[in-house]
Amino acid sequence: MTDLRKFQGELNRLPFILELPEGLRKRVSELFVQVASGKLYVKGETLYNRGSQDKSTGALLMTGSVEIDRGKGDPVICHAPELFGEMMLLDENNRR
Asked: Using H for helix, E for strand and C for coil, what is the string for the chain?
């Protein structure tokens, strides 16, 4: 497991955190550190499958990049730091 504390400063670079009032940024990044778990993935490993049900998780990409195939043509490339996979929370069946 990676040490999430060392990434806490990087969390403050996430676009949605940058939009928060300054006093709230540290509190939000601290919350992420408290509820998150770290995992390293190898190139080519699948994190999520489209259409699968999930246990309400998203991912914080802290290093590297990830390719997201949404089945609509060209894949989207996300570069760290980035939040992704959270949109399934808006699906009433919790499907990706």
From this structure: CCCHHHHHHHHCCCHHHHCCCHHHHHHHHHHHHHHCCCCCCCCCCCCCCCCCECCCCCEEECCCEEEECCCCCCCEEEECCEEECHHHHHCCCCEC
Q: Find out whether the peptide bond into 81 is cis, omega within 30 degrees of 0.
A: yes
Q: Are 88 and 95 in contact (CB under 8 A)?
A: yes
11 and 81 Cβ atoms separated by less than 8 Å: yes
Could you report the per-residue pLDDT of 7-43, keeping only the tens digit for each? 777 777 788 888 999 889 888 888 888 887 778 888 8
